[in-house]
Amino acid sequence: MNYKIPPLSIAFASAVLTSLISCSDSEIQSSDIPELTQSIFVVPESYYGEPYNSNRYKASDKFYVNVNEKIRICGVYAINGEYISTDKAVPYYISHKWKINNNEASATSVYSSFDKAGVYNITFETVDLLGDTLQTNAIIYVNTPTTIALQSPANNYNQVDGDNENGLELTWSISGIDPWETSYCTLFASYKKSDIWNSSLGNMDCMGSVNLLGVLNADANEKGDFINHSEETSTIYWGVRAITKNESGQHDQAYSEVFSFSTKLKNDGAAIVEIPVVSLYNIFPERSKLTGAILSAAGDTLSKISENKATANIQKTLNPQSNIKIVICNEIRTEYGCDSMTINLAPNTKTTTDTLFLRDNVKPNMTPVNTNFPTSEPIKFMLLDNGSGINASKILATINADTVLAKYENNIVSIDYKCPNECTLVINAEDYARNKAPNVFWRIKVNGSETRISGPFVNQEDNK
Known about the structure:
This protein is an all-beta fold. The chain has 2 helices and 37 strands. β24 (321-330) and β25 (338-345) form a beta hairpin. The protein is flat and about 110 Å long.
């Protein structure tokens, strides 16, 4: 097992180090033969102060820490039963050292962490002024992180019998329960995903499984509306929490991820598919139209899709079959392109697919409204974007590297600036999908009453 014991300064009897490592303000009791004893404490690396001055930390021969937890293992002395500071103990001993799994370190305290779970033996040895050896032993138990993996039913399984006459077995696997720990698990399940960890069904052995009995079909949905089970299924969300406890009474807990399963439809064997579609960063939903089709494995059109919006939940009832392909495009905002997926539909099931995200990956473009125009008129550029739309707050115009005022309206950028002779113009712009316009520049040349624009020219310094 690997562990690390960085070098640690030994606390000498000096006023300088008294403020760094002190053990107590207690005075050494006068005695002809003072009795020197020692104890072991374990505190967090960041702890400042003396552990015996806190009710949180106690001397012990057993300590429990986590993998890679940074700790300080501290040897503390007492005279006639009273804890004393390290510097006050110096006159009463000749030397001291630590042994941690056969590795030695000469210090009063050792900073350490353990990168593997297991049991570590530690020994603190002190040779007193009479040449006698004091030896204190302890064990550090390094806990294995607890993990829970849900197994069955598989996540999003949608062929569960809602009447559930034979019961439904929920299984999981758990790891990280150490021999020095006791444990129990709690099953949570709810028709509302947001409420799952408030819906305990009871405690059980972590190494076991649970058989759900009783009807699994809900009578109403989350809104309280009656459920027609020929068209709607019931979805149940579930998860497991594990509580572990060591011999010192310390508790820890771990949670699984959340799985779900759905009941079968009570219909004639048809299948229902629901397809969530989102056009990302679309601020003009009224200017979008989703079109597409659902195709059989042979390429036949099973159903057409047409929605006058950018985001929709499309629902279709189809005959059960395998390798169905779904293709959806944004017909009006063409820069969003299309997306597709292939699924299987089983009899009497409702399948909610993964969300189809239509993404605008096309850069905005720009072109001068006129390349020759009267000098008295403003410079005008048209910004072209048929996706998420131009983000007006991201438009920045510079002439000869100086920022100039730019107005944006109806896809036109207007710059009311009179170039004295010949200038270089750069217009930075991006759409709501954060696609930036090409990094180019334009040359503006004024010849009396006429202004001429040429370009675009590639910016060689940063052509991104």
